[in-house]
Amino acid sequence: MKKKFDFSTLLRKFLMYIVLIVLLIAFQVICKSATGRDFLSLSNVMNILGQNAYLLITGVGITFIMLGGAMDLSTGYLLSTIGIIMALIDTASGSFVLAMGLGIICSVVISGFNGVMYAWLRVFPFIITLATQYILNGATYLLSGGVQKTYKGLSDAFKVIGGANIPFLAGSSIKSGVIVMVILVIIGALILNKTHFGRNVYALGSNPDAVALSGVSVAKMRIAIFALAGLFFAFAQIVNIGKIGSASQSMGLGAEFTAMAGAMLGGIKMGGGGGKINNMVVGTLIIAVLNQGFNFMNVNQYWQKVALGIVLLFAVAIDEMQTRATINAAKKVSGKAPAQNQAA
Amino acid sequence: MENMQPTLSLKGIRKVFPGVVALNNVSIDFYPGEVHALIGENGAGKSTFIKTITGAHAPDGGTITVDGQTYNAMTPAIARSHGIECIYQEFNLIDVLSAAENICYGEKLGKFVNQKKMNEIAQKIFDDFGVDINPKTMVRDLTPGHMQIVEIAKSVSKECKVLILDEPTAPLSIAEVEILFRIVNQLREKGVAIIFISHRLDEVFELTDRISILRDGEYITTIMTKDTNRAELIKYMVGREMTATFPPRNAQIGDVMLELKNLTGNGVKNISLKARQGEILGVSGLVGAGRTEIFKVVFGAEKKQWGDVYVKGELAHISSPREAMHKYGICLIPEDRKREGCFLSETISWNIVYNVLGRISKSGFVNRKKEAEIADYYGKAMRIKAPNLDATKVMTLSGGNQQKVVIGKALATQSDIVIFDEPTRGIDVGAKYEIYELMNQMCEQGKCVIMITSDMEELLGMSDRIVVFGERCLAGELEKNEFSQEKILDMASTGGPKED
Fold first, then answer.
1. Torsion angle of alpha carbons B206, B210, B214, B219, nearest 10°?
2. pTM of the model
3. Is pLDDT at B344 greater than 90 in this prediction?
């Protein structure tokens, strides 16, 4: 059994990277010929990253949750709730540090609560996070006196972390949120790939029964995963507020689905079973590039949604084919069929 | 009976699975109004035989004659159309529907769902049976015994001519067994041919008219129940030549390493036994007799109710598998490797080091070099055949190699007490031999090996001492000079004390 160069394995591994590159080139060609504008300009690429930095940070948290075999429907409302909490504290105290600190603590506690309920009730987190989603939706409005409200005039520090333009190559600039995103993505990847805890995340998604027999507390792991995700969600919303410059109830809504879609597109499986942070990054970037590309071409935003749905189905289909191919290959027996049995 | 026409007649049935002949030239006739026991050890071919009758398997040779029509193979639809019904150990009921709805499931009673009529049909059957079940009760709210009665009622409502009961008494209490026997006797009087599969010989003698014995896929004989006795049946069931070979061992048996005193929990009561250094303790008994269950308690994976565990002479308080492994040096290699043993979607190295991550991590970060060393060491020691330990995923390995990964993963904890649960199930002969050699090595290193197995040859060939479980308690213990298949089977098939 020698290891041989296998083109199809390589293609499988890098398929989504290729899709991303093909998309970038296709949009460049189409936009250039249709509108004369460059899609692949440094400033546009930086813009795409800046717009989606908070989604990628959310995606890190979502990736932990998905790899651990769970899901989270409440992320979007969690983001908006945390946004409102930080805006209220910032406005009242004028202290960004206090707002950020309490925001992070609230986020970890609320997301951790999802984990506690999951660990305790042991039902699929779809139901639990659906419930918390309603609670949080109500909470955002209750916190701001029952009305839709936009909080402006927040501390400049939000902007410094999320929305400041830092000079970059060739006269372009990079949003500070992108740098925060890159750091958090790297931290996420380090935790997943290098630490004991990361191993347990994969183990939990792969086979919780075996984890329990190995003496690791499945309940504690589930709580820890959701709490850690909450940490990333808090940073995502700080960056998001910095980018927009204000906080409101609708900020962050839908992030859970975009982040899950991005992760799945990149090859992270719902219900555990493998994948890495970079899969999520590539998948989320494909969605981001699609959106921006369609914007450039002035395609109706509803068509964008239709296209995104089709791409997602396509990605799931490819993933499923690959899984089946692996399983079938494993079942295949080497050698030839024996001659017919005469005795029977 | 000889002048009657059999309801169901199987002739020369042969079924081959890759690597095994599951049935070879089996011919049995089943007559109306008889209860016909089918007995044999684990793996004798009983299940395959039943599946041939119900159409779940197509045989490779032989014929099946039912109602005067002869088939080369049944299909589930043909079997149903001739009134062949089977009640498996796992119930096939829809637990969110009522008993009546389950009984009438698949039958069209008018254009719309007719609850009233269904309840009437169900009530009538229950009345005939003389059991008190409300037809409107949801199946999930019933006891296992009542669920089984609903299953039988379902078959009866379809006017079955052949009723197959696969280990029907296993989940039942004594009172429920009595009801079951009464119903079976009623059906016998109505002329139904009943095939009764059971490990419990007492029940076979109480209920059946004739007994057929299978052994290793071969048909042995059919005898009248009244003309035979327990000893004769056991002789028929085990009369086997030992064919497998076992590697020689040169072990020094030392002090007691693990001792259970009246250990109770997970449904198993008052188990006391000792396992010594350098010894392989064979643990026998039927599946579900409590062998796996009690060792899960020892391993801390299930709660104990009372009793004590002593490790190397000292009282051990094991409340989790983590403590069992890291504090007391006990590891368990589970029976279902895919469900409990390993992480299929991860690599071999990843799996091997999983239990010892704490030891090879520094402030949470896994030391890749140590990981590679450990994986390499156990990969070599286990002789895992794979191109690359660090890249090959466990799901792509053969059963034997997967099992070696699971063993490697357990041994990496450097435990002194190693509990194997069905160590060689579903793996080929070559890999089996290698696993036996590994066990011998462990003994020579002064470890204590506990081997839970349903494989009689393996049990007799590898063990230094054997304990036998029967009905959730300890049925007996045999020293090497007392080993015999007959004794083990006799102990295992004795219905032990049972409580409601």
1. 170
2. 0.76
3. no
Per-residue pLDDT at B497: 42
Tokens in use for A53?
A: 């930095």
> Are residue B204 and residue B308 in the same domain, yes or no?
no
Number of Cβ within a 10 Å radius of residue A14: 13
Q: What is the CATH number of the domain that holds A149?
A: 1.10.3470
Instruction: Please write the tens of the pLDDT for every residue from A132-185.
Output: 999 999 999 999 888 888 999 899 999 999 888 988 877 788 999 999 999 999
Claim to verify: residue B224 and residue B293 sit in the same structural domain: no
Query: Does A329 sit within 8 Å of B387, measured CB to CB?
Result: no
**Beta carbons of A207 and B361 less than 8 Å apart:** no
CB A151 within 8 A of CB A91: yes
Structure confidence at residue B359 as a pLDDT band (50, 70, 90): confident
Q: In terms of domains, do B230 and B275 share one?
A: no
Complex ipTM tops 0.85: no
Domain span at residue B106 reads 8-238
Cross-chain residue pair A203–B354, CB shorter than 8 Å = yes
Chain pair A-B, CB pairs under 8 angstroms: 89
H or E element at residue B174: helix B174-189
- Among B322, B345, B361, whose Cβ lies nearest the Cβ of A196? B361
**pLDDT digits over A242-298, tens only?**
999 999 999 999 898 999 999 988 888 877 767 899 999 999 999 999 999 988 888
User: Sign of the CA dihedral A145, A150, A156, A162?
Assistant: positive
Contacts of B90 (CB under 8 A, 6+ apart): none
B91 belongs to a structural domain:
yes
**The pLDDT value given to residue A330:** 60
Residue type for position B214: L
Q: Are B353 and B371 in contact (CB under 8 A)?
A: yes
Nearest to B287 by CA among B109, B453, B139, B399: B453
Question: Domain containing A55: what range?
Answer: 41-314
- Spell out which residues of chain B touch residue A341, defining contact as CB-CB under 8 Å: 16
- For residue A337, being part of any structural domain is answered with no
Specify which residues A172 forms β-bridges with.
none
CB atoms within 10 A of CB B250: 8
- Chosen for mutation from A214, A218, A279 (greatest number of chain B CBs closer than 10 Å) is A214
Let me know if residue B72 belongs to a domain: yes
Tokens 């590039």: give the residue: A289
Nearest to A20 by CA among A204, A319, A286: A286
Q: How far apart are CA B355 and CA B336, in angstroms?
A: 18
- A28 close to A44: Cβ distance less than 8 angstroms: no
